[in-house]
Amino acid sequence: MPALVACRKDQHVKAFYDQLVARGKKPIQAVVAVMRKLLHAIHGMLKHRTNFNGAKFRALELKPCP
Q1: 35 within 8 A of 3, measured Cβ to Cβ
Q2: CA distance 55 to 62
Q3: Taking Cα atoms as reference points, which of 24, 23, 25, 3 lies closest to residue 14?
Q4: Per-residue pLDDT of the chain (66 residues; tens, 9 = 90+)
Q5: 60, 10 in Cβ contact below 8 A?
Q6: What distance in Å separates the CA atoms of residue 5 and residue 60, rounded to the nearest whole number?
Q7: CA-based radius of gyration for the chain
Q8: What is the pTM of this model?
Q9: pLDDT for position 62
Q10: In 3-state terms, what secondary structure has residue 39?
């Protein structure tokens, strides 16, 4: 459930999820990949005693203004 909420509410996680689906993964496979990546992020946060930083999860491409 945390992976599903993160896919909907966090723009960095959503970008990662959308990228996986665009590459041909099934939506459930993309959710599992998000779960795994969140677990790695949580482990790193606990190990280094830091807060969650979405920019480290997945960098977003900045689109220039027209």
Answers
A1: yes
A2: 12
A3: 3
A4: 999 999 999 999 999 999 999 999 999 999 999 999 999 999 989 999 999 888 877 777 655 555
A5: no
A6: 19
A7: 13
A8: 0.80
A9: 56
A10: helix
**How many angstroms separate the CA atoms of 25 and 12, rounded?**
18
Please tell me the predicted confidence (pLDDT) of residue 63: 56
Total length of the chain: 66
**What pLDDT is recorded for position 66?**
56
Read off φ and ψ for residue 59, nearest 5 degrees.
Answer: -75, 140
Retrieve residue 24's tokens: 């041909």
Burial class of 54 by CB neighbour count within 10 A (0 to 12, 13 to 18, 19+): middle
Cα-based torsion angle of the residue sequence 36, 40, 46, 47 in order, rounded to the nearest 10 degrees: 150
- Alpha-carbon distance of 40 to 54, in angstroms, equals 13
For residue 32, give both structure tokens. 């599992």
